[in-house]
Model the fold of this input.
Amino acid sequence: MRGVMEKCSFCLQRIEQAKIAQKVKAGPSGDIKLKESEGTIPRTACQQACPAEAIVFGDVSDPESQVAKLKAQDRDYTVLEFLLTKPRVTYLARVRNPNPAMPDYQESPVSMKEFTEKNGNPFEHHEGGHGAGDGEPRASGKTTGKGAR
Ligand code: SF4
Done:
């Protein structure tokens, strides 16, 4: 709908189209599961359009899928996980070089603890503030690296 912000649907129409095509192909065999290894899982529009391949989409129930392997990494994290909203979208933390002798060394904080020490707690209620929507930043999260869906 024009002028209305919509949530990501994970390109449902592409998935449904692929499911229908797989059902037609499977016929009476009943092999209707989409499989990454067979190339039957469609790419989402944003995944297809991103030249940096920063978005990965797939079947998390398939341990051999790229998205399942990325989600299994230590770098995988969920934004605002403590709110228990359990979003399907997760992110991979940026890899930083902690060696100050190296040219790509970054002093930026690498954890919430370090960020809070440097900038204060972004979730703390500010004096004279009005909670969410008072113009104060609420989160520090920058999404970098590959998103796993
Ligand atoms: S293009 Fe990407 S953001 Fe948009 S609906 Fe598809 S998966 Fe979601």
User: Anything to note?
Assistant: The pocket of iron/sulfur cluster is lined by residues 8-11, 44-46 (CB under 6 Å).
